[in-house]
Design a protein that fits this description.
Layout: H1 4-13, E1 24-32, E2 36-40, E3 46-50, E4 69-76, E5 84-87, H2 89-106, E6 109-113, E7 116-118, E8 121-126, E9 129-134, H3 151-159, E10 165-174, E11 179-183, H4 189-196, E12 204-213, E13 216-221, E14 237-242, E15 263-272, E16 275-279, E17 300-309, E18 312-316, E19 322-326, H5 327-331, E20 348-357, E21 362-367, H6 374-383, H7 392-444, H8 450-460
Parallel strand pairs: 3-5, 14-16, 19-21
Antiparallel strand pairs: 1-2, 1-4, 2-3, 4-5, 6-10, 7-8, 8-9, 10-11, 12-13, 12-15, 13-14, 15-16, 17-18, 17-20, 18-19, 20-21
């Protein structure tokens, strides 16, 4: 029989670290009941998982069986029954996030179900943790393309994906913020990189517009050495034609240039991983290269105002060339608070070309003033806070002259109309006057007119 001294010696040689509340301990499940799970903690005794800890929300407890090794957090050193109370909720939570981090680092593809949708993307669940799948991270197949960019229409398309099983990769894990971001298109990246790698910047591709958005148009095209007609939807590649690469002229609405389903020819201008940038205008002659044949500095030209910004007005000279009239070039000649007080969108004015820069596609403009009255006219227009571009003032004056002439003409026509009325009135009155003359002639012959009247009266009696 060992003495007390021997026991002290053993304890000193193999000291037992007594855990504190919140510490993590390891053990083996020895029994599982409906109300509790018992865990063998070795020299620390027996631990128990009970109450609300039986449902950790991550599905870890529900899967435990006898013989399973687990890690748990100490909730109470010793309860009324002498057991060490444990919690797997916190331990399982930390373990789950660690597992998610591992999956992200290793680039593992996981399968998940779409639970719900909102305007920004879709909600998914992985290992009991809710994650977010942004719209921008959807595959070509599931990406919602709405031409007018209506968020409600986008949401309707996303709602159709709820309940769908998708394969995703974890692209961001933040335990402190409890943020989990996943990507569907990332699962295709390796395969797409290999296929896109066969293309080079400068290659020409034939494709079909798959969607038009505010910032440009998406174009689907087939892998190299394959035709679109022979390529399945999943094999199709996709690139973006930015709004600035649709045409040489200034574009406000991409839908005015291309439509969904339209066949187009594009040039590859950039490849960044799986992102392919395309250009339609690169295959069209640059009208700015020959701008010197049409316009020169100092020319007075007509141009339509297409857009007004705080810094100036965009002016379309023809279908290919546009210019900018800086706010300082316009307001300097008029006492106005804003360009909107002087110019109107979709209205044409005469402009003076101040500068032409073909390389950077820039053309500076200023409103063209009347030359006849020179500075005096500018001062008058400035005092009235009104700008009369060349030709506008003459039009207004001619309009006034026309109105005056029209007024005189109306006066003449009015007199002629009055004369006609008088003539008609006279014509209507002539029979009456004729009758009166007959009556007067009878009166001269005595009582010839009155006697027949008396006779007719006696006959009536």
């Amino acid at each position: 029989m060992r003495s007390i001294q021997d026991m002290d010696k053993l304890i000193n040689e193999a000291p037992v670290n007594i855990p504190k509340v919140g510490d993590l301990v390891s053990g083996v499940v020895v029994a599982v009941t409906n109300s509790a799970i018992y865990v063998d903690l070795g020299v620390l005794g027996t631990g128990i998982i009970m109450g609300r800890e039986m449902k950790d929300g991550l599905g870890v407890v529900e899967k435990l069986k006898e013989g399973d090794g687990i890690e748990a957090t100490v909730v109470e050193i010793e309860n009324e029954d002498g057991y060490m109370e444990l919690s797997v909720r916190e331990a399982a939570y930390e373990k789950t996030w660690s597992e998610l981090e591992r999956k992200m680092i290793e680039g593992e593809t996981v399968s998940t179900r779409i639970l719900e949708a909102n305007r920004g993307g879709l909600m998914v669940e992985i290992n009991g943790i809710y994650g977010f799948l942004p719209v921008s991270q959807l595959s070509h197949e599931h990406y919602p393309r709405v031409e007018d960019g209506d968020k409600n229409k986008i949401l309707q398309l996303l709602l159709k994906l709820v309940g769908l099983e998708v394969s995703v990769k974890i692209i961001d894990v933040d335990v402190k913020e409890e943020k989990l971001i996943v990507s569907e298109k990332a699962t295709y990246e390796e395969k797409e990189k290999a296929v896109i790698g066969e293309f080079q910047v400068g290659d020409i591709i034939d494709g079909v517009v798959s969607g038009v958005v505010d910032f440009g148009a998406f174009v689907k095209f087939a892998p190299k050495r394959k035709k679109i007609e022979e390529t399945s939807e999943k094999e199709m590649l996709e690139g973006l034609v930015h709004i600035s690469e649709l045409a040489w002229q200034l574009i406000e609405n991409p839908q005015s240039v291309v439509k969904t389903g339209e066949k187009v020819r594009c040039k590859i201008i950039d490849i960044d991983g799986t992102r392919v940038s395309l250009s339609i205008r690169a295959l069209i002659d640059d009208p700015w290269s020959k701008i010197g044949d049409k316009y020169k500095n100092g020319d007075i030209v007509w141009g339509e105002v297409t857009k007004i910004n705080p810094f100036g007005a965009f002016v379309q000279l023809d279908k290919d060339i546009h210019g900018l009239a800086h706010v300082s070039e316009i307001l300097s000649n008029a006492k106005a608070k804003s360009l909107a007080d002087i110019l109107e969108v979709n209205k044409k004015y005469r402009w003076k070309i101040l500068s032409i820069e073909p390389e950077s596609h820039r053309l500076g403009l200023a409103l063209a003033w009347e030359d006849k009255k020179g500075e005096k006219e500018k001062e008058e227009a400035s005092a009235q806070s009104t700008v009369f571009p060349a030709g506008e003032k003459e039009k207004k004056e001619k309009g006034r002259d026309k109105k005056k002439k029209a007024g005189k003409s109306d006066g003449k026509n009015g007199k002629e109309k009055d004369a006609d009325v008088e003539n008609k009135k006279t014509a209507l009155e002539k029979p009456v006057l004729k009758k009166e003359k007959i009556s007067a002639s009878h009166a001269k012959n005595g009582k010839a007119q009155k006697q027949p009247e008396k006779k007719s009266t006696k006959q009536a009696k």
